[in-house]
Amino acid sequence: MAKKKSAKPARKAGSKTSVKKPANAKPKRLGTRSSSSSQKIKVSVKKTVSKNKKSVPKKAGVKVKKVSVKKSDLKPVIIKQKIKPVKLPKESKVPVVKEASLPAENNLPIKRTRKSSKKPIITLPPPPKIDVSNYPKNRVKNILVSQPKPLDPEKNPYVSFGKKHNLSVTFRHFIKVEGLSSQDFRAQRIDILEHGAVILTSKMSVDHYFKMCNEMRVTVPENMKYFCINEQTAYYLQKYIQYRKRKIFFGHGTMLDLVDVIRKNKDEKFLLPVSDVHKEQIIEFLDELHITYTKGVFYKTVSANLSDLKNLNEYDVLVFFTPAGIKSLKHNFPNFKQGGTRIAAFGHTAALMVKEMGYRLDIFAPNPQNPSMTGTLDAYIKESNKR
């Protein structure tokens, strides 16, 4: 007998299993997900495929949905490719054209050359040649130096020099310096406050510069710059100004030492206080630098009264340092005959003035052997006092 199918128990109304399936529904396979979740997987799979550009094996039971992409959504991809240099064969070398064979229009510099950083060298004109006489070098016992008496004789080089050779050294100033009156200074039409820098060549110029400022009732500004020829002149400024609060520059005895400092301040207008008798070499030096400067006479040199000197022929050597001192000799002793008295001059201008006044020059300094007057006299006396 055939077995009767057992009746299935009735399901409750409202449960999910109570919904009848359509007739054409396909059987659901194991391991599958709902349609919504499968679409998400398909999209994510499609993205990974587009990034890696590799075919992904299809999983069982997963439907791949094709996604249509518009051309406007596509972005151009730029591929950078390195270009290797092509080496030409040895036979096909390109001929090199020399610059000299090119026309003048095409011969242009490839690189801009820098301007030379070297500063132009200041070359002053050579000093005039000085001829010294061959007068016999007789024994020297007495020397007259045309300088004021030293305040401290022990530190004076001429005093120590006289003791060394057992000589009698006499000091007598042949000239005196007088300050210019304010009325004579105004005639030069110089405005001190128009200048931002002062060039000082001696202590005398320092004294008369500040003296003229007081007479003209001019207050020297604190930003005034001072260019001194040596360190002694620079420290002498302490007599009139506070040294630490000013811009002070100094050299080592010559104007050439101040070339670089003056060039750095070439925008300033310089004032040069001088005497009525001064060295033209300083003016030539400033002209060579092409700076703006004003030369002003602040003091004058006049002959001193030498009536206390009765006979100059009792001195074996007369020593002079300035042209004004030799002029004073001619002014005070117009009938002086040199004879055996020898004249020593320091500097080219003083040496030229000796010959201009009609005297004989026997000793000259500075020279290649001795740069100082004491050294030159020492060498001369060693030779003349041998006997």
Description:
By secondary structure, the chain is α/β, with parallel strands linked by helices. Among the domains are: 142-174 and 304-384, Rossmann fold; 180-301, Rossmann fold. Helix content is 25%, strand content 15%. It is built from 10 helices and 11 strands. The protein has helices spanning 35-52, 157-165, 182-186, 203-215, 231-236, 259-264, 280-289, 323-332, 348-356, 373-384; strands at 142-145, 168-171, 175-179, 197-200, 225-228, 247-250, 269-275, 292-303, 317-320, 342-346, 361-365. The strands form 2 sheets. Strands 3-8-7-4-5-6 form a 6-stranded mixed beta sheet. The protein has a 5-stranded parallel beta sheet with strand order 2-1-9-10-11, sandwiched between helices. Helix 2 links the parallel strand 1 and strand 2. Helix 2 (157-165) packs parallel to helix 10 (373-384). The longest helix is centred in the first third of the chain and has 18 residues, at 35-52. The protein is globular, with a radius of gyration of 52 Å. The model is unreliable at 1-10, 12-19, 27-56 and 92-117 (pLDDT under 50).
